[in-house]
Specification:
Length: 358
């Protein structure tokens, strides 16, 4: 979970819920075979309006525009990294976007939970969105009390979840089906801090006797995790790297932070902005980018363990990306839920051109 900055109180969908499709207001129903999946039901809520996402990273310092050579005032243009050098452009002088995965179909998933341990926490809300305008939102009754500290972050109380949330098995099965269908197309799925959200989803699916996501697709890939990409590509930047901090850094607008749908939309915007900022990310094949992130995550955990050791502090790395493998101490505290096997891509070889990770 991210630290609370701006809170949003959840409210059930309006009776006449609808979406905008190419400017036309339409009523949404998921299908006659699953009436409970209508947006008129608490299991799935489709956003009432598009949330704005602007992918511009303003320049902190004045400089000369690479295209026209004229001066660009501080915060008056866009900063990009090209050929290992930072350059500045006027907004009107930006080069055409290079083709890459970020210009095609993208999906994004986010969830809010009862706690911070992905193996024992329960799902409270979730959202799956796509770059084509698809929006699926879920409010779930986790079957346990929602701690006050968790409710303070996402704004969903135990009473609200019980009154308006759906039974978890139905929501979890639907979420897994949506993600599996998207991944089966070979399209990237953006998940900010993937080892938390995807591990929790797998644990919850097992807890409720449902097929794991990894059993519904050939591989849980390709995943794009803006957190590990940012830590690797801009490793020396100081300050917070939460989703809200990254939105500010990459010029992405986030509304209603800690709302699962708002966070999913924002994470997708950050991933696109990162691809624009770092051409090597945009130009990588999705298979290569997925493998690199696994390597970057492992290297980051090893580096942090060494840092802790130098300080005389103990630290056990968190193995596995994009799905965590439980450590022995975590396995002892789990409640029947546990991802069944390591994600195959976690053992991917290190690409020769892989940048060093934090």
């Amino acid at each position: 979970m991210l630290p609370p900055v701006r809170l949003k109180q959840w409210r059930p969908a309006e009776r006449d819920a609808c979406i905008l499709v190419k400017g036309i207001r339409k009523r949404c129903v998921a299908g006659s075979a699953a009436a409970e999946l209508s947006v008129l039901s608490p299991i799935v809520r489709v956003s009432q309006a598009e949330r704005s996402v602007a992918a511009m990273a303003p320049n902190r310092y004045a400089g000369a525009c690479k295209t026209c050579g004229e001066a660009v005032p501080e915060q008056g243009g866009e900063l990009r990294k090209e050929a290992d050098a930072w350059v500045v452009y006027h907004v009107g002088c930006l080069p055409a976007p290079a083709p890459g995965w970020h210009t095609g179909l993208i999906g994004s998933y986010d969830c809010e939970t009862t706690g911070t341990d992905p193996f024992t926490s329960r799902l409270v809300s979730a959202a799956f969105v796509t770059s084509t305008g698809e929006r699926h939102e879920f409010l779930v009754d986790p079957g346990v009390e929602i701690p006050a500290e968790a409710a303070a972050v996402h704004g969903i109380s135990t009473e609200q979840a019980r009154a308006h949330g759906t039974e978890p098995a139905a929501a979890l099965d639907r979420i897994a089906a949506l993600l599996a269908a998207h991944l089966a197309k070979g399209a990237p799925l953006v998940v900010f801090n993937a080892p938390f959200d995807l591990t929790l989803l797998e644990a919850e699916l097992e807890r409720h006797g449902l097929r794991a996501l990894r059993d519904r697709v050939a591989a849980v890939a390709p995943i794009v995790d803006p957190l590990i990409i940012d830590r690797t590509m801009d490793r020396y930047r100081k300050g917070s790297r939460t989703l809200e901090a990254q939105c500010a850094h990459y010029g992405v607008t986030i509304e209603n932070a800690h709302d699962a749908c708002a966070d999913a939309v924002a994470a997708m915007g950050v991933a696109r902005a990162q691809a624009v900022r770092f051409p090597e990310v945009a130009e990588a094949s999705l298979a290569d980018l997925h493998a690199r992130q696994s390597t970057w995550k492992a290297a980051a955990e090893a580096d942090f363990a060494q840092y802790k050791a130098r300080r005389g502090e103990s630290f056990t790395p968190e193995p596995g990306w994009p799905i965590r493998i439980p450590r022995p101490d975590e396995a002892r505290g789990m409640q029947t839920a546990r991802p069944r096997r390591p994600e195959a891509s976690s053992d991917a070889p290190t690409p020769s051109e892989t940048p060093s990770a934090v």
